[in-house]
Amino acid sequence: MIRVLLVDDQPLLRSGFRAMLDAEDDIEVVAEAADGAEGVALAREYLPDIALVDIQMPVMDGVEATRRIAADPALARVHVVILTNYGVDEYVFDALRAGAAGFLVKDIEPEDFLHAVRVAARGDALLAPSITRRLIDRYVTEPFRAGVGSGLAELTNRERETVALVAHGLSNDQIAERLVISPLTAKTHVNRAMVKLGVRDRAQLVVVAYESGLVTPRTG
C-alpha cells in the first residue's frame, strides 16, 4: 500500500486529489495539511511513502517544507513530489536542490497523476517534461555552482554514463537496454553513483549532472 500525505492550502484541490487516490486499491491518503509546517509535522507522525506538496503556501512554502523533510534522517524514505503551476520555475529549481524527488503540474490528467504517484513510490525521479525542458535550458545558460559534482571524479566511466542517461530521463530498464547490461546492474550503477555524489534520489542526480556540466543538451 502506497501511503500518501497531501499538503496544499486549497481544500478543494486536496479533496479532488484525495478522491482520486483513495479510489485506488494500492494507494491510501493517510493525512492532509494546509501549509508546509503542518505538512512536515504530519510527515514525522505518519511517515508516508509520498508527500504531495504544493509549492506556494502560507506559513511555510513547499521549498522549505521539502528542505526540512529531506534533512530529517527519520524521513529518509519519504519522497516529496512538488505540485506546481506553469510559470513558477524559480521555485521548481530551489525545490529540486532542496531534495524534491520530482514535480507534477496541477492540470495533469488523472491517469497520469496516479501513474506518477506509483513511479515516485518506486523511488524514480519524476520530472514533468515541460519543467525538465526549462530546467535544462536554465542550467545551460547559467554558470555552474562552485563545488557541484565534486564527487564526479570518483565515478567509474560506466557510472558516469549511467548518470548521464538518468539526466536524460531514462529508466533503469532503458539504461540497461542502452548499455547492454541487466536492469539490476543498471540499478546498482545508479545507487553507487548516488552514494558517491552524496545525493538522495534520481532527481538530485539530474541536478548534479547539469550543474556540474557532465551533461548539456549540446553534448547529449
UniProtKB/TrEMBL annotation:
<keyword id="KW-0597">Phosphoprotein</keyword>
<dbReference type="InterPro" id="IPR016032">
    <property type="entry name" value="Sig_transdc_resp-reg_C-effctor"/>
</dbReference>
<keyword id="KW-0238">DNA-binding</keyword>
<keyword id="KW-0805">Transcription regulation</keyword>
<feature type="modified residue" description="4-aspartylphosphate">
    <location>
        <position position="54"/>
    </location>
</feature>
<dbReference type="GO" id="GO:0000160">
    <property type="term" value="P:phosphorelay signal transduction system"/>
</dbReference>
<dbReference type="GO" id="GO:0003677">
    <property type="term" value="F:DNA binding"/>
</dbReference>
<dbReference type="InterPro" id="IPR011006">
    <property type="entry name" value="CheY-like_superfamily"/>
</dbReference>
<keyword id="KW-0804">Transcription</keyword>
<feature type="domain" description="HTH luxR-type">
    <location>
        <begin position="148"/>
        <end position="213"/>
    </location>
</feature>
<dbReference type="InterPro" id="IPR000792">
    <property type="entry name" value="Tscrpt_reg_LuxR_C"/>
</dbReference>
<dbReference type="InterPro" id="IPR039420">
    <property type="entry name" value="WalR-like"/>
</dbReference>
<feature type="domain" description="Response regulatory">
    <location>
        <begin position="3"/>
        <end position="121"/>
    </location>
</feature>
<dbReference type="Pfam" id="PF00196">
    <property type="entry name" value="GerE"/>
</dbReference>
<dbReference type="GO" id="GO:0006355">
    <property type="term" value="P:regulation of DNA-templated transcription"/>
</dbReference>
<protein>
    <submittedName>
        <fullName>Two component transcriptional regulator, LuxR family</fullName>
    </submittedName>
</protein>
<dbReference type="InterPro" id="IPR058245">
    <property type="entry name" value="NreC/VraR/RcsB-like_REC"/>
</dbReference>
<dbReference type="InterPro" id="IPR001789">
    <property type="entry name" value="Sig_transdc_resp-reg_receiver"/>
</dbReference>
<dbReference type="Pfam" id="PF00072">
    <property type="entry name" value="Response_reg"/>
</dbReference>
